[in-house]
Amino acid sequence: MTRWVREMNREERMKMVKAMEYIARQLNDTEIFGAWLADGVADGDIAYGDLTTYAALDAVDWYIEDQHFSDLMETFLRCMKAAKRSGGLYCDGVVSGVDYSAEDEQA
């Protein structure tokens, strides 16, 4: 069986790695976030909020290699699945899965 060989799209992979890292940092459960740091993107490898792709980072280069990239996406999905059952996501004072409509009616 011949393996199909293609050239990776570095920019797309860098976007994906940085997007997953950004979203993972919004996890509302410290245990799940700790798992992301251990099995996902190590703390400090990507500056928080850096979604740029113009600068090649040695740390990101490691994450975009085929097997590492596949493993990282799988880890991200596991963390998101666990987050759904746990604390969800938190951003700008809003937690996923919380009904804020009652607060809106009182305002």
Estimate percent helicity.
40-55%
CA distance, first residue to last residue: 64 Å
- Oligomeric status of the shown chains? single chain
User: How confident is the prediction overall: mean pLDDT?
Assistant: 87
SSE order, as H and E? HHHHEEH
Strand content: under 5%
Major sheet attributes: 2 strands, antiparallel
Number of domains: 1
Quantity of strands, as a count: 2
Helix-strand makeup class: mainly alpha
Poorly predicted segments: none
Shape: elongated
Order of neighbouring strands in the sheet with most strands = 1-2
Total count of helical runs of at least 4 residues: 5
If you compute it from the alpha carbons, what radius of gyration comes out, rounded to the nearest whole angstrom? 17 Å
For the structure shown, list the relevant keywords:
107 residues, mainly alpha, 5 helices
Structural commentary:
- The structure is a single chain.
- 53% of the residues lie in helices and 4% in strands.
- The longest helix has 20 residues, at 66-85.
- The chain has one domain (10-106).
- The chain is mainly alpha-helical and 107 residues long.
- β1 and β2 (94-95) form a beta hairpin.
- It has a two-stranded antiparallel sheet.
- The termini are far apart.
